[in-house]
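To assess whether the prediction recovers the assembly geometry, we first specified each molecular entity separately, as shown.
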Amino acid sequence: MATASPNPSPTALSVPSSSLGAVVLTESATNHEYPVHVINDSPNSLVARIVLCYWDNIMGPCVRHLWNSEAQGMHVPQSALDYIATHTLSGEITRDEDDPTIDFRFFLIRESNLIVTSFVFGAIGGNESVVHSLSIVVRQEHRQRCLELQALMSSWMLRGIHHLRVYLEKETGDTSMDRFTPYLMQFIQMLTSLNESGLPGRISDCDIDTAFNPDCGCQFDGHFLCRAISSHLISARCSVVVGDNPNKVNKMIATLGLFLDSAERQCSRFVLYGNKSCPYSPDLFLQGFLQSASGELNTSLKDVHLSQRPTTLIDLTTQEVKFSCQPHQHLALQYRAVKRKLNELWTGRADNTFPFRSIGAKIILESHFYLLPFFSEMFHTFDEPETLVTNLFEEWKLLPPNIKQHEAYISQFISGLDRKAMTLIRFVECETNCGQNPLKISVKKLRQDLSLKVPGDFSIVLATAEKLKPGIFHFVTKGNNIDPAEFLDSF
Amino acid sequence: MFGGYTEVAAYYVDNEPLSSSGYPELPLPEEYIPPYSTPDPWHQKAACQEDFILIAEFSEREGPKPVITIPTNCCQKAKNGFDLNDFSVRLMSVDFQTVAGDSFALSEDSYVLVSETKYGIYAYVHHFTLYDSQARGFVRPFCMAFVTPDHGKLIASHKEMASEFSKVSHCFKYGNLLLFVKDMSYYLSDLMYTKERFSDFEKIREKEKENDDENPQELLLLEAFNNPNEDHILESVTEQGLATAIREVKHILDVTTVLMNDSDMEQRFRTLEQKSRSTSESNEGNELSSENFQYSCSLHSESGQPWTDAEKVAQHRPSSVNDLEDSWNMDHYEMYKPRVVRTTNKKGFDESLRTLHELCRWGAKEGLGLLRGIHRYFSRDMTTLHIERRDAASIEPSPGLLTIGRSVQLNFLSCAGPLKSVSDEVTSPCSLVSSPSGNITQRWLSDDTLASFHSAESFLSCSEGASSDESKRSSLDRKLSEPEDVAGCASAFSSEYTVVRPDSLDFQSAVLFPQVPVISAADHITNLSTKSLGHGFLSFVGRYAVTPHVLFSLLCGRPLVIIGTTRKETDIRAMVTALCCFVPGHASHSVCAWLTRPLKLTDLSKFRLVGMGREKKSMDQLVPNSLKNYVSVLNMETKTLSCPAYQGGILTEIYKKRKAFRHEKPYLSYIHSVLYDLSHKALFYYHAFSTSEVAATNEITNSISTAERSRYQFLSNKFGSKLRLADCDIKIVQYLVEVIKCQQIQFLHKDESFPGAPQPNIKLQPSKCTVFKMS
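The predicted structure of the complete assembly is given in tokenized form:
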């Protein structure tokens, strides 16, 4: 069992817009000591501990650093930490330390009732590159929750590990951990926010109305609502809603949440404000923010391109619907954003130079609610015509008011989209022999063949197909464009 | 919309800010920037593009090694230097089943999700331990891994996979337990016998010591060397060693015997044994035939390679799994004759370790069967799995489920709260859900494995009450021969929707609400084969310009009869197969691929699509004149189609798309999508119009005036136009709603608490027919 050293040297780390804090202690295993950050998180935090282990050439698998949740207050025995070190690193003895790939493991420590999600990677340890593992430790009763959030957690951890590798290259051991800790605290804060204000698996289980609830009326302009839903569907169902009224923002979030499946709702949250406010979190499907009276937003959307998906921005005040980029362009822009972020960490200075230049009407320069004016250029107005959502809305208005389960109606609409997407996928598979040959027909012809002549309808179906067959969006659209790799050469 | 990367590239400033002055001299090393990779929707960069299951063992002789793969040749096309042996080492090199303590304890299964990013593959790994009286520590660690290049599949299906692999593990372990307990019981009797013999041996030795003045020790050793018999073994044992071994074995038996309580599993093993015996008897003298070797998976030798015949002989292995099975007797323990055994160093290293089949016996056979099912189920792509899950969620409540061609469309009652039917006051959703008789999915849900859960296989094999052999026969092949008397009904046909009550039919029987298996459209497309419903439709459409009229008859519930001479039986059967994916309803419809007797009125209550044939002379009698107004007839001899003309957009669009789709899979998928859209409109029609007060009153009352009926039709058409439906398309939507209403009525009729519920009716719809020449 590890014990805290008698004279710990607490170091409070401040995190902007966060109620979390961290202090550094030292714990000792059987043969060596390692520093411990104690994180003052909320009792609703999911994570019990985060463990960084590495392969010591003399000692073998060792714990290198520990981030301990104070609120969880859970006793994790040293044997469990040793188990994690051994079981994540022992099988990696033949791994090339310079291998840039990151592998993952997900397992249960039955004796300690712990669920562990580990990521194995090579990074600097001491003076040379050695194999490391970063493990998120969660109590076993959260297993299902952990699985639901697996993709989200993986995305955050992979991004974090890229940061950590830069820190470890640049700084000495302890300093690098101090610099990495705020990222982990944001990660824990993001998970906590989902626990406290996340969408339920079924929208009807929450107290918040939707625009489709016949008892409450729509409250949103029909055209605006259709544009918001369409753009939401096209941007891989990932949206940020902003407004000055929390109830209205939450109502829009709940409405858009109807178009998500249960797992996606687990990675979405209602608006947080006051003491619970939380900064923008990449990779969430839905999140909301409040604007001040002067129109300023209480967060920065600078990291919007770091997200795995493109993002729709819905402004309830101005009734504007914007999107971060076209879905097929997102991958390249995401790569650009990651590279930029890592350069910032490497140089130690923020890069506030916006890489885009104004190109007239395509870029909205006059948006009023961003802290930094150049971020307004990151979003484009959504103006694609479509009929699928508009028709759904029109048909929904025909329903008598006593029909309660609007959630089921939307679910059946989504099933219809799934079938259209399946047709598109099977069509492309047969035409290209499952991607072995390029798609020879144009997007326009494809739209005609699939009876999706309206551009927005095709975009919605293609985005649905992307959800079912990740990568098909790029495959279908790349025939008309230059290859992204060439595009990236310009960076 | 798709301006492209060039457009985005134009957004970028010419001078890259990151390379501007002020940055440190050393740029960020390239290795710290994650590599850019283009999306790979079909996993072409992965080492293995197809999913497979691997069973690996941590052999005490050779270390981790692959044992079985499903399918057999899964890694033949592996790329990037992927090696199954190396992968097995990766999976088994870390022990996830450590059991604390010195004494024997059973280890629980554990699972791990792992990635091999280098190879682009991911695996769900299920670790389990078998027990072997001949192994070190009595344990034989194994793992089963479902390996896939699709990471999302593992996360989305993790819960199901864990559950299914646990079932397989249980089969293996239970079969193994039966053998292990038996082995240990024998070993215990050996030890007890040894103890007895050792006691005698000690007494004799003491006597010899007393009587013999010479060197007795040397004498005994000499005897033992010359004659390696029991005495030699007894020489090596000690009383304490024996007591410890007996105590240990008794403890093992105490721990394991209590687990032998799964009578269901034992019964399944017995069934397998009986089947195996009957098979081996019928195939006597042909033991090495491929039919006898029932596993499609590979069986590896100790070296990890499939056994050659020479190796089998050399190792005195059975030459086939059937040979192994001959020695697996569930009920008869042979009389065991105990022998003297060592308590230490009893392992003979010249003996090879037992294989999985030898360790688990019938459990291996059962478990491998389940594994093949798991592979069939999970190896389908995520699109299919995702859509199938959504479809499975919409099958309850069953009276609200609309199927077309037995393919699940949507549920009319899942969004209605209380059941909205014409008999609204006498039912509740609770009764619908809880009643097992109304549960069409009963057959599915009672299945033990996902293998036959929702799959196309189950669609073809799950007709109610069918035996396993019969179940392989498609329900399309049913022929009718029973005589039925339906004379005198023609006079009732006067109004547009005529109601005839066929009292001569026993609707209380299974005809009313048969448990017809249904499938997901996604699975239908994925597993499309020459036997699948809808196969040949693309060719049908290409050949016949009258397709929209044919489909219209089917989708608005008008029976379609395809007639021809017996020589055209194959063609007619093929046409029925191609068209039957357009027959709505799973509870009341039926399709008959080939009928040789004349059509009868009662047939119209059962059939919506019939293939008929006779000799040319008597062909005209197949459809009596009295019925010709109520059925559409496609005559293969005269090349004519007699049916109501279709004037709408949806079915014409299906016909026009025949040229856009060169392959049947996407074309049928497109058709499923169009049918779903129609069903979705029917859903709105049902809730927003059909169950409204005025509409319900008009529909359930037969005695309404012509004016009222016209008004109803006017309102219906008006509502249809709001749904962007043309006249003929509204009729299709109306019929789909009718199907749901009939299902609800039939369901209520089955419920004994409503004895006064109306009998189901035959609805006949005389329409003005047009004769089309089929080109």
